[in-house]
Design brief:
This protein is an alpha/beta fold. About 40% of the residues lie in helices and about 15% in strands. About 45% of the residues are buried. It binds pyridoxal-5'-phosphate.
Length: about 375
């Protein structure tokens, strides 16, 4: 007899058991500093250029699958050929596709947690083993010897510079060692590198290092998180593989048009990035004056803090001050930690004022 009971657990691909829909726990708040978005309004001329590009984009035709015009602009930005660039529906799609293509049963990814939680998620979905080289519990530094040793027996290594959520840069010498002393594919996630000092990126090495891949996104410095555009700079052979396995129309015509317009305006966006960097330092200085609050140096557009009674402080920030930040206090290696994205001066002041009150009341 036909069974009425939808026994999904038995039908689901076993590797996908236990995954939950992603819920960033957004609640509408006056000040949202929870997702590392660029909260500055786009400069008027940039917004106008994007709007004009969107208006001129027909919606009845399928997108160019590989987004070649956008690729060309990205390639020019980094001084590489079109064939070295793969565009994705956000950096997230590219991270997934890297594991889809180069991971799988019997393969191993090495990561350095606490880091971007999607790495381990996507690895699990793609049935890829994860070997974790935990960062120092005090200063979050990466043990280069331990990382190289782990990578020597692995297929893939994902490192993050600056790292999310700890904010620190990875010494390029560590990437050098990974390339010289191991045979792994090495992905350096530079989602936040525009907020780091000049010279922090290793993207210039890709041309001479076929196993190096560098991930970038327009979601952070470029202020286009909603448009979903990220890209990988890698060897053309890697790009060809990704081109073959990707969802063919994953980057829609509006995203391609907006991304292209924003890239062409990047001089105009530099002021916003400089402002966020200055505000980061001001926020960090303000935080360091609060009793019992610990911060770590950040090269990104957020600051990680450890506060007493962090989960309660985060809840009261949201409920009593309408300020939303990200709670990492229950994440391994991040006990008591909150991640504060850097907003505008007014937003950062609201956050600092509210935190000063709550830290006093909770201690
Ligand atoms: C935000 C982020 C990305 C990519 O984000 P997309 O919006 O998918 O482009 C990649 N890596 C890290 C570490 C990030 O924080």
């Amino acid at each position: 007899m036909a069974e009425k009971n939808l026994d999904l657990a038995a039908r689901l691909r076993p590797a996908l058991a236990g995954f939950e829909p992603y819920d960033p726990a957004f609640s509408p708040c006056r000040v949202n500093l929870s997702a590392n978005e660029n909260t500055h309004a786009l400069p008027e001329e940039v917004r106008a250029a994007i709007d004009a590009a969107l208006l001129a984009t027909p919606l009845n035709r399928y997108p160019d699958p590989m987004a070649n015009e956008l690729r060309d602009a990205i390639a020019e930005r980094h001084g590489v050929a079109r064939g070295s660039v793969c565009v994705g529906n956000g950096g997230d799609e590219l991270l997934f596709n890297l594991l889809f293509a180069f991971g799988g049963p019997g393969r191993t990814l090495v990561t350095c947690p606490p880091d971007f939680s999607e790495y381990a998620n996507f690895a699990a979905m793609c049935e890829t083993a994860v070997e974790r080289v935990w960062r120092d519990a005090e200063d979050f530094s990466v043990d280069a010897d331990a990382l190289v040793a782990a990578a020597a027996g692995a297929d893939l290594v994902f490192v993050t510079s600056p790292n999310n959520p700890t904010g620190d840069l990875l010494d390029p010498a560590v990437v050098r060692r990974l390339l010289d002393e191991t045979d792994a594919l090495v992905m350096v996630d530079e989602a936040y590198v525009e907020f780091a000092p000049e010279g922090s990126s290793v993207v210039g090495w890709v041309a001479s290092e076929p196993r190096l891949m560098v991930l970038r996104t327009l979601s952070k410095a470029f202020g286009l998180a909603g448009a979903r555009v990220g890209y990988l700079v890698a060897d053309p052979a890697v790009v060809d593989v990704l081109g073959a396995v990707r969802q063919i129309y994953s980057v829609d015509v509006l995203a391609q048009a907006a991304g292209l317009a924003a890239l062409r305006c990047r001089e105009a966006l530099a002021g916003t990035v400089a402002d966020i960097v200055a505000e980061r330092e001001r926020l960090a200085a303000g935080l360091s004056e609060l009793p019992g609050v610990r911060t770590w140096p950040s090269s990104a557009n957020f600051v990680l803090v450890r506060v007493p009674r962090a989960a309660e402080v985060r809840r009261r920030l949201r409920d009593e001050h309408s300020v939303l930040v990200r709670d990492f206090s229950a994440a391994p290696g991040l006990e008591g930690c909150l991640r504060l994205s850097v907003g505008t001066r007014e937003e950062n002041d609201a956050l600092l004022d509210a935190l000063a009150t709550l830290v006093r009341e909770e201690s």
